[in-house]
Design a protein that fits this description.
The structure holds two protein chains of two kinds. Chain A is an alpha+beta fold. Chain A has ten helices and ten strands. In chain A, a hairpin with a 4-residue loop joins strand 9 and strand 10. Chain B is elongated, with a radius of gyration of 18 Å. In chain B, helix 4 links the parallel strand 6 and strand 7. The longest helix of chain B is centred in the middle third of the chain and has 16 residues. The chains are: A alpha+beta, B alpha/beta.
Chain lengths: ~475, ~230
């Protein structure tokens, strides 16, 4: 497609060149008219038409053809210096000449247009490639939105572009205007992966530059590239963030695991030694016995904390795998109360778990550790009576551990499952509750805390599944 | 006891071995230590111990293999020590012939109690008493009769089979697999839900407080034990 300014510049030059060509060719034929048959020299004009229409297009070509016919007739067709043609054969020659000139001009014009279009396409492709290079090629470094806008402006040959991000329906964006050249510019929607990212606002064309957005699809292609670049920038930023999070997480887990593991052996040895000293009964002073008891108890506590930390690190590293089995709620409750006995001291624990409850799919060992942690927590921070009860609630089996203590502090209720968050009463809960929740999730169960009127109630909840049929007897 | 009972302690951590040796010596036992599976087997053959206390994680092979090798020639009671997340190893050791287990972290008092119980069982081999009693319940294995406070209790064949299998090994941990194979047959070795339901029935019929069983004890993730 030729632009208006292009036409205006090209045409007068073409016509003038055509006329000059006709004069030159006429002069040359005149020079050689003595030696050759001038009528056969008409072919020289055909050559001229071909050259002019190839260089300047259809209009100058046709004009050159017409001027050639007139000049040839005037100067060389008998009777010369008149426009009359005596011989019928010369009429035919002239008609053939005119037709040839017309067809030649037409073909040359087509050829010219094709060449120009392919040049435009090549230039567009080059511009797009350059823009792609600018906004996409740098691996690992995400291009900023203004950088993408600058690259788009350079590709389109306009003063400036602006990228407005946001959902199309949030009201902050204007509807895209049609791609019509105007002084104020226009907007193109930015779409990547079928998702609208925002708009590309294209400013007015640069002074003295041919606005390139006029090529069909070019502005859309630039907008598409800009959208991909913006989207890629976002993805890279997100990936970098995830990667750094993952690294700090795995570092934390490795540290936790290493420290816990290294602590374990000396702790076990100290505890064994303290226990041995106490078991021997070789201490005479009552204070010594009390000191030994403190050593034993505190080492045991540290040992439990380290064991919990180790489990937490295993859980976070994905090294702890639940081994699912059919479990009887009554057994789970009774087993947990037995296992927690050394930790709860003389706090009475009541079990309410009828053996008629349905079996659940769970990891019995992990469940016991969850319930032991909850019982330990209730005995330490709550107040008796501590009750463990199991029941079916809304298609799920729930095991609740409740106490009648002061209850969770409202400020920490949401964070009580975070490691080392205190319930707002005594010392911190350490990692017991964090571990308990992790262990619950590892087997597809949930653990939540209810803030009751009095005390706290933790609920371990399992989805119920049909128990396989069993052979009947009797 | 005329001579001190001899305990072989197998643990690859020197500090733990030293502490345990001191604790068990203080409790009146004669203690031999071994840090590897090879040392343990050699020490056991050289001076047959009365009890073996065996850590399941050894540098030159697992404790399970030591259990199996010991059981090839001796019925010495074996108490295995394992970490909390080693249920599979624990079960394998019990199936390979270990008598009992303690889970780390443990108190020395608990270990001593297990050792004493294992030694008592070692002195009175299982299966030679026709009647086993626990609480108010007596199980007459010869008559296949179960009484609670003198009253005959009606049990289904599988309930009786399960109770009898536990009663034949009082105090010992029997794995799920061992119980299922003994009572229901080899095809049922992983059908744990049978055990859960039948143990529930037995507790309802025999325990004073079925929700807090005193005799039919759950060994979580491992099996069951009859506590006399």
């Amino acid at each position: 497609m030729e632009t208006l300014s292009g036409l205006a510049r090209a045409r007068p030059a073409g016509y003038l060149a055509g006329l000059a060509g006709v004069a030159v060719v006429t002069g040359l034929i005149e020079l050689v008219s003595g030696q050759v048959n001038v009528l056969s020299m008409a072919v020289c004009f055909q050559l001229l038409v071909l050259v002019v229409s190839g260089a300047y297009g259809l209009g100058p070509g046709l004009a050159t053809g017409l001027a050639s016919a007139v000049a040839f007739n005037w100067f060389f067709v008998p009777p010369v210096h008149t426009l009359t043609i005596a011989d019928t054969r010369n009429w035919i020659s002239l008609a053939v000449f005119a037709a040839t000139a017309f067809i030649t001009s037409y073909l040359a014009e087509g050829f010219r247009r094709q060449r120009r279009e392919s040049e435009e396409r090549r230039r567009d492709a080059e511009l797009l490639a350059r823009m792609a290079q600018a906004v996409l090629a740098e691996l690992g470094a995400e291009p900023s939105v203004p950088e993408v806008a600058r690259a788009a402006a350079a590709a389109l040959g306009v003063e400036r572009c602006r990228i407005v991000l946001g959902a199309a329906d949030d009201g902050g964006l204007r509807a895209p205007t049609p791609l019509v050249p105007s002084a104020a510019g226009f907007t193109v929607p930015l779409v990547a992966g079928g998702r609208a990212l925002g708009l590309l606002e294209v400013g007015p064309a640069l002074a003295g530059e041919e606005p390139r957005w006029a090529t069909p699809g070019f502005a859309t292609a630039v907008a598409g590239l800009a959208a991909v670049a913006v989207e890629r920038g976002r993805l890279i930023a997100a990936a970098l963030e995830a990667e750094s999070l993952r690294r700090s997480d795995s570092l934390k887990t490795a540290l936790l695991h290493g420290v816990s593991h290294e602590f374990r052996t000396p702790l076990t040895a100290i505890r064994t030694a303290a226990d041995a000293l106490a078991a021997r009964g070789g201490v005479d002073e009552p204070q010594d016995a009390a000191l030994l008891a403190v050593m034993g108890e505190e080492t045991a506590r540290l040992d439990r904390l380290v064991a919990n930390l180790l489990d937490l690190s295993r859980l976070e590293a994905g090294a702890l795998v639940a081994r699912m089995d059919w479990c009887a709620p009554a057994e789970m409750v009774a087993g947990a109360i037995d296992a927690a006995a050394p930790l709860v001291g003389d706090v009475a624990v009541e079990a309410r778990a009828p053996s008629s409850l349905p079996l659940v799919r769970a990891d019995p060992v992990l469940c016991e550790r969850i319930l032991v942690n909850l019982l330990h927590n209730a005995a330490r921070h709550g107040a008796p009576p501590v009750v463990v009860e199991a029941g079916v609630v809304g298609g799920r089996l729930e095991i609740g551990v409740s106490d009648a203590g002061p209850g969770l502090d409202a400020s920490v209720a949401d964070r009580v499952f975070d490691p080392f968050v205190s319930g707002g009463r005594a010392a911190g809960t350490g990692v017991g509750l964090a571990l308990a929740r992790g262990l619950a999730e590892a087997q597809g169960a949930t653990l939540s805390a209810d803030r009751a009127e009095r005390g706290t109630r933790f609920v371990l909840s399992f989805a119920l599944a049909p128990v396989p049929a069993m052979i009947e007897e009797e | 006891m005329t001579a001190a009972a001899r305990i072989l302690v197998v643990d690859d951590e020197p500090q733990v071995l030293r502490g345990l040796t001191a604790a068990l010596t203080a409790a009146g036992y004669e203690v031999a230590g071994a840090a590897t599976a090879a040392d343990a087997l050699e020490a056991a053959a050289l001076h047959p111990p009365d009890v073996v206390v065996l850590d399941l994680l050894l540098p030159d092979g697992t404790g399970v293999e030591v259990c199996r090798r010991l059981r090839e020639w001796t019925q010495v009671p074996i108490v295995v020590v394992s970490a909390v997340d080693e249920e599979t190893e624990k079960i394998a050791a019990l199936d390979a012939g270990a008598d009992d287990y303690v889970t780390k972290p443990y108190a020395v008092g608990e270990l001593l109690a297990r050792v004493r119980a294992a030694m008592r069982r070692g002195l009175a081999p299982a299966g030679d008493a026709p009647t086993v009693t626990f609480g108010e319940v007596s199980v007459n294995l010869a008559l296949r009769e179960v009484r609670r406070a003198g009253e005959v209790v009606h049990l289904t064949p599988h309930e009786y089979g399960l109770l009898a299998e536990l009663a034949r090994h009082p105090g010992r941990v029997l794995t799920h697999r061992a119980l299922l194979v003994a009572v229901w047959g080899p095809g049922y070795s992983t059908e744990t839900h049978y055990l859960r339901v039948y143990m529930g029935n037995l507790r309802r019929k025999l325990e004073d407080d079925p929700s807090r069983p005193a005799h039919l004890i759950t060994e979580t993730g491992v099996g069951y034990r009859l506590r006399p």
